[in-house]
Specification:
The protein has 7 helices and 2 strands, in the order αααββαααα. With 153 residues, it is an all-alpha fold. It has a two-stranded antiparallel sheet. The longest helix is centred in the C-terminal third of the chain and has 26 residues.
């Protein structure tokens, strides 16, 4: 099982765009430096966010901006935009259980019901978290960072 990091990179990009998009042109190269990801990966994520209507990127000039109010963007929308199958793929059922075994014959049915409940719960939770809340957490972290003494390495 693997949980994709695309959603966290997308959130990183969105916070960066929100914080700096009015002051400077936010490009994939700039986001690449901030995220530590390849610019091609960033462009793919930005393209997905643009298709979902979360960001706007002017044709020709570049420079991403947030396209809707932060409180109207949920973590679920962001994750769905960049990784449409992430929640479904989070927990999978092995492909070849033995049909000769009672457990093997029924495990798919049993787990699919349980996993569907977990997927629904996760989707619901992600829908309750807005980008505004995440930006507020970012601001709290930045202000705490300024009030704590630096740690020696």
């Amino acid at each position: 099982m693997h949980i994709s990091k695309k959603c966290s990179v997308a959130v990183h990009c969105l916070i960066f765009i929100h914080e700096y998009g009015q002051k400077r042109k936010v490009t994939s190269e700039l986001l690449s430096l901030s995220t530590g990801c390849n610019p091609v990966t960033i462009r793919n994520i930005l393209s997905s966010l643009k298709k979902a209507g979360i960001i706007a990127i002017p044709f020709g000039t570049g420079g991403a901006t947030i396209a809707m109010p932060l409180q109207d963007i949920s973590l679920y929308q962001i994750c769905l935009a960049v990784e449409p199958d992430a929640i479904r793929k989070l927990m999978g059922i092995h492909a070849s259980p033995s049909p000769l075994c009672p457990v093997g014959r029924n495990i798919g049915y049993v787990l699919s019901r349980t996993y569907r409940t977990l997927q629904d719960d996760l989707s619901g939770s992600l829908q309750t978290i807005s980008l505004q809340q995440i930006v507020n957490e970012y601001h709290a972290a930045v202000s705490q960072e300024g009030s704590e003494p630096e740690k020696a390495d």
